[in-house]
Amino acid sequence: MATNADIARMAGVSPAIVSRIVNNDQTLRVSAETRARVLKAIAETDYSPNIAARTLKAAKSGIIALVVHDLTSSVYSEIISGAYEAAHAFGKTVLVGEAAALARGQSHLGAWISGGGVDAVILQGAGTDTDVTLTRAARAKVPTVLLQTGNPESSTVLKLDDATAGRVATQHLIELGHSRVGFLGVDDARLFSQGRQQGWESALLDAGSTPAKEWVAQGGNSFPAGAQGMAELAKKAPEISGVVVASIVAAIGVLASLRDLGKSVPGDMSLFAIQDIPLADYLSPPLTSIKMPLRELGMKAVELVCSDEQLAPSLITLDAAPEPQIVIRSSTTTLGRRERQ
Fold it and tell me: Which residues pair with 123 in a beta bridge?
């Protein structure tokens, strides 16, 4: 195992600097380049601060670390709620941290994770370098589960039945008469986005409609990315009359983009979002969406990390919940007779 001195030698700094960076010393003044060298050396080795030894030497802490990529997201709040409920049943508590803060060294939770001060780690994956670094540090010490995306060849990845969600959403639009349905994914690399796209494609094929590559674009997981992705999709596939959006957050940006393009929803474009949040009721128009078992996802993740069985690299699809539930609102409608011709 690498030591403080090893990290200092690799990064070209003193052991004291390494210690102060690891412990998130706010009074330390070093350049961003120096801090990055130290963090890179830590990520490439098995080094971890001895926080666990300083706190709970012989006993488990009773703490599960849950790391997400956006603490303000309504989607994540359901996962967190489910995790809290399950953790209580196991006599544990959940500490929530944001991945970006951990990456910047601005979270004490990051040091606790790498130092073994938590019993388990659950990471809402986003396919970033931060995910890879955090997962590598955590899984060597404690049970670790990634949610929705990650590499199942090296980690335990728990995901929703995203293919079913994509299929159900697309079938709903097809039943309304839309045979040319676009898909706006989050990005090509994320497992859940891939699954939702597979469901979209299979529903179109089953209905006798061949999906064209021009009907697909990526809209990220934010308002601006959704708006940009929709503008791209509308430009290259003007023939589509409906679109399935893999992220309801991006779908809010899609609404704005379509308005800027002079297209009405649902008159010119029926819009269906995967996931559901309370805000969907208050948009103009309210978004038709599909409820996913996010609470159950958080609960299952806690059950896995608290299990006595050792976690092995694998891809686990949550199958205990019923099929995703459609919430019909005003952003989808039947394709008119003129458009069918």
Answer: 67, 146
